[in-house]
């Protein structure tokens, strides 16, 4: 189910017709540099001024990565119930956030159009950089409404329905921070991310060792730091058309939050809270400019 924030009447579209523009004047959905009438995007083919380019938006799942058991959660209640109340906390420590912000500074060009998947009330984008548009997605509207960086947001449980209500090939970047472990259908979500990216667009998936244990999928809960990186790499590799994923790691000097094996540490991890420094992992891949098989 898709829920849109009441301030915004229609799903965000990259090339909307005038009646679809939201009321809020902050959001110019039709940048002056792009003319609406000369460009129409359909799901798989981009026609520009009557010229057809490669069908670069089609996404194909080559194989399933997870077994049925690997997708299970200990807490089987709907995710939307779990996120019904806002959590105005940060889920990772300052070092993790600083590393992530620096990565975004390096990889995301100013003026980009970005989707922050599984977002919350905070943004990790560098404050000084201006982007053309930042769209947020998450499960708690109150959190998303507080996020100062979002021009627009939508609420959707990706374990119920993976379709993103966005046009194909309309984004330069998709981000997913400390949330990939909650996806029960990651193959379909990654295929959707591929679809909405422009050729050359980047998907940055970052995570630490923290999690809401009861809500993380079995394959993640039972894994190690190494196997989790491998898992996310496989999510990318199972989609035809992503470049070979790249790994960025930054480990704390002394073991990190996962190192605390005491009952207190276990309870903190169960609650998705933890003291100590968080290990930083990011897996990054780009949408190929040309389809691999034509
Ligand atoms: C630990 S928070 C991370 C929030 C944010 N990315 C950040 O860095 O602060 C995990 C997020 O995963 C998202 N999430 C969890 N389960 C989800 C689901 N089934 N569908 C969509 N999003 C989900 C929620 O939006 C939640 O805010």
Structure commentary:
This protein is α/β, with parallel strands linked by helices and 294 residues long. It has one domain: Vaccinia Virus protein VP39 (Rossmann fold). 20% of the residues lie in helices and 19% in strands. The chain has seven helices and eleven strands. The strands form two sheets. Strands 1-7-6-5-8-9-11-10 form an eight-stranded mixed beta sheet, sandwiched between helices. Strands 2-3-4 form a three-stranded antiparallel beta sheet, with no helix packed on it. A hairpin with a 4-residue loop joins strand 2 (39-41) and strand 3 (46-48). The model is unreliable at 1-56 (pLDDT under 50). The structure holds S-adenosylmethionine. S-adenosylmethionine is lined by residues 79, 83, 91, 118-120, 122, 138-139, 157-159, 177-179, 182.
SSE layout and pairing:
Blueprint: E1 2-4, E2 39-41, E3 46-48, E4 51-52, H1 79-82, H2 94-107, E5 113-117, E6 133-138, H3 141-146, E7 152-156, E8 171-177, H4 186-196, E9 197-207, H5 218-221, H6 225-237, E10 246-250, H7 263-270, E11 280-286
The protein binds S-adenosylmethionine.
Residues 79, 83, 91, 118-120, 122, 138-139, 157-159, 177-179, 182 line the site of S-adenosylmethionine.
Protein name: Methyltransferase type 11 domain-containing protein
GO molecular function: S-adenosylmethionine-dependent methyltransferase activity
Domain Methyltransferase type: 161-205
